Amino acid sequence: MEQTNALGRRKAAVARVYLAAGKGNVTINDRPVEEYFALESLRYIVAQPFEVTATAGQFDVKVTIAGGGIKGQAEAIRLGIARALCELDAEAYRPALKAAGFLTRDAREVERKKPGQPGARRRFQFSKR
Asked: Among 49, 60, 61, 104, which has the highest number of CB atoms less than 10 A from its own CB?
């Protein structure tokens, strides 16, 4: 089996995921996942597609990621892994991944700051006098 690749995005983070048969090693920007994501909750997010499809330890994952914060990066990697698994065997993995909501790109982005106010929606305090 050769390598399969997919793209995952979340907020400003873009993850290129390369999936190949292996022992379950996850490498992010040439660093192991334990070193890249110090928090256990972020490592759990990255591993979720494998847990749902019961394929933990069957694939090696190599990820190149840029932009965004650590939470957005973890969720971008999750989407990329889910898409790569679907590309490998859609009829086996797609229903479980779809039911878990891992194939839907979270389209929420930061709203831009508007001129004449301190934030996107926030207004300066109104003074009658």
From this structure: 49
Per the structure block, which two tokens stand in for 68?
Answer: 């965004």
pTM for this structure?
A: 0.91
Residue 32 pairs with which residues in a beta bridge? 27
Q: How many helices (H) and strands (E) does the chain have?
A: 4, 5
CATH number of the domain that residue 30 is part of: 3.30.230.10
Q: Work out how many domains the chain is built from and give that number.
A: 1
Kindly state whether residue 107 falls inside one of the protein's structural domains. no
